[in-house]
Amino acid sequence: MPELPEMETYRTLLTQRVLHKTIVSVDIEREKSINVPVGLFKSRVKGRSITGISRRAKHLLFHLDGGDLLLLHLMLGGWMFYGTESEKPDRTAQVVLSFGERNLYFIGLRLGYLHLLDRVGAERKLSGLGPEPLERDFTAQRFSGILAKKRTVLKPTLTDQKTIAGIGNCYSDEICFDAGILPTRSIGTLTDDEFAVLYRSMNRVLNEAIRFGGYMENPLFPGDALTGGFDSRCAVYDRGGEPCVRCGNPLIQNELASRKVFYCTRCQR
């Protein structure tokens, strides 16, 4: 599932390509991927231009010049492609926004969605999310204060979108490995020093992942050399049984709260 770095990569790359462009046509192949009748969706989106693209947690918001927004959550298996019909991957797109010669294809929206909302509706939809981990005002003190109140295990806490927004399966494991702390630790056993280390690791891992385009490998457009660049830099995620990059010990793959979890029992305490 795309997490904060993947959606931030999409935001950056799409802003460079579709900002201020007019949506000349809309194609809906799966009505369940949108939240209003197809006719209404098309009438309010067609002919509008995109004035900005922002991100909140794992969501992208396409701001339209008429005041509406398109709120995207790709969920599990969702991704996007921007290009011509001949360049499009051989995959079914549930929603297509055409900008003329090139189109933006929303692919794999079986669980994900592209909702048409006004600003109030979008704010309501996102109101339950926790703070953004990379915002300037999300300090180490605030981070430790939020986590210290929890009586849960570390990984499920980091991936709880009501606690901290944008971190999922991949980056929770990478953050814990960078910090040298097991993702299976109970929050109540963490010291102040460990909270500080986790905070630094969270910033370091997320910023590096954004710099290298996240871990999802499907390119956004032909010639895309950024998207997916962090995949080869993942230290533990999806590497169960492989040697640890620090100590060579085989990495553990397990399950925690119905999620896969990856860690090194030698390097993490």
From TrEMBL:
Sequence similarity: Belongs to the FPG family.
Gene3D superfamilies the record matches: 1.10.8.50, MutM-like, N-terminal
Record PANTHER family: FORMAMIDOPYRIMIDINE-DNA GLYCOSYLASE
EC number(s) per entry: 3.2.2.23, 4.2.99.18
SMART domains: Fapy_DNA_glyco, H2TH
Cofactor annotation: Zn(2+)
Protein name: Formamidopyrimidine-DNA glycosylase
GO molecular function: 8-oxo-7,8-dihydroguanine DNA N-glycosylase activity; class I DNA-(apurinic or apyrimidinic site) endonuclease activity; damaged DNA binding; double-stranded DNA binding; zinc ion binding
Domain of life where this protein originates: Bacteria
Catalytic activity reported: 2'-deoxyribonucleotide-(2'-deoxyribose 5'-phosphate)-2'-deoxyribonucleotide-DNA = a 3'-end 2'-deoxyribonucleotide-(2,3-dehydro-2,3-deoxyribose 5'-phosphate)-DNA + a 5'-end 5'-phospho-2'-deoxyribonucleoside-DNA + H(+); Hydrolysis of DNA containing ring-opened 7-methylguanine residues, releasing 2,6-diamino-4-hydroxy-5-(N-methyl)formamidopyrimidine
InterPro entries to which the protein is assigned, alphabetical: FPG_cat, FPG_N, H2TH_FPG, Ribosomal_uS13-like_H2TH, Znf_DNA_glyclase/AP_lyase, Znf_FPG/IleRS
Keywords, ordered alphabetically: DNA damage, DNA repair, DNA-binding, Glycosidase, Hydrolase, Lyase, Metal-binding, Multifunctional enzyme, Zinc, Zinc-finger
Residues annotated as domain Formamidopyrimidine-DNA glycosylase catalytic: 2-112
Domain FPG-type: 235-269
Keyword set includes Translocase: no
Record GO biological process: base-excision repair
SUPFAM superfamilies reported for this sequence: Glucocorticoid receptor-like (DNA-binding domain), N-terminal domain of MutM-like DNA repair proteins, S13-like H2TH domain
